Amino acid sequence: MGITIIRAGQLIDGRGGVTHEATVVVDGDTIREVGPSREIEAPAGAEVIDASAYTVMPGLIDCHTHLGGTSSVDYRTWVVEDDIRQAIVSTKQMRELMDFGVTTIRDISRNGIRLKWVVENRVIEGPRIVACGPGISRTGGHGDAHNLSVDFVQRSHPWGIIADGPEELRKTVRTLSRMGSDAIKIWATGGGMWDKELETDQHFDLEELRAVVREADHLRIPVLAHAESMEAAKDAIRAGVATIEHGEDLDDECRAMMVEQGIIHVPTLQLFTGPWFDAYPPPPREGLDRFPGDTPVQQEKNRVIDNFTRSREAGVTIAVGSDSFSSIDVPFGASTLAEVHAMVDAGMPPLDALTAATFNGATALRVADRTGSIAPGLAADLLVVDGDPTTDIRHLAQERMLYIRRGEQVWFDDLTPRAARSRRPALAG
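^ thats the sequence. predicted structure below, dont judge the formating
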């Protein structure tokens, strides 16, 4: 591709800046120049995209996905589903993310490592993938299908691998690195799929968590910790993880340590406050009745929102993660947008939520030198949106996305009036 000139009515740079009547100059897959439109002329032969009536912003970053390719919402069937079928379905899940403007993801699954290879080698189009491979679960933990044999789970769980004790955990980190993992995911608590792994149950002690982080440090890759209880979050923070996933039970000590150490919170807020949670009984927590609501579920939703607000107000860096694991329950792409909307619904200013979905996500994934904002030298990961999401976050919607680009890949390009637009099928070539 040659030179592309994008004339923006409004430009959101991803780092909290907003500029009117700006121009982005793209050379191949890289942003070459950004500046006032009146100062940048289009060179002869350049493609000019007139987005002067629209908003241009960075592509979205989803820090928590599971491209497992599962076809069921029942965790007891995930491991027994055919692995090749799951690989095919995971490709569709990846393309669904693309169709909602998600240009970079951090993925926890076996298939994510494979998809990263085919995307990087230009076999198929896809988002930039920071691949974790399967996450580490204790025996009987959140990444273990306890109804099946351990050998079967180790071989075929779409996003989990089992390890116990410091030495076995060290070996597993090395194994994951050998598989091609860019980061290490560990379930520091349960997740509530069965009665022996509630969200409030801590699954690895401080010594084990330190062993994982120390080994990952040797490999120069970060660790992300699923932590749904306060004590597990504290131990994960003390161990030196890079991000806390979920983290819906933090206290002021947790938050102060996170700010001091630069640990990023990926709250997956819509997972706990959206309709999916209505049929999901919350774990027993002290003081739940202090929060408004006629039912424990409503009280838990308000408790999670309060926890998120306290983290944000304490200065903890927030990034967007959907925890999409099923196209039925937590649909890919749609849940990413729902997470941004949920943050604003919980009181976060829209521009801060857009920063969480772009630059903060790139920082969490350690790719801010490549993407996450609109600046010279970075990848041309760009969206054109019909509307102004800084004043109405619901303008960040799939039906308002006119142009979706990741580097040289242009996934969607239709700047015709909205009524005349049609979106291409998710698996189109």
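Confidence is low (pLDDT under 50) at residues 416-421, 424-429.
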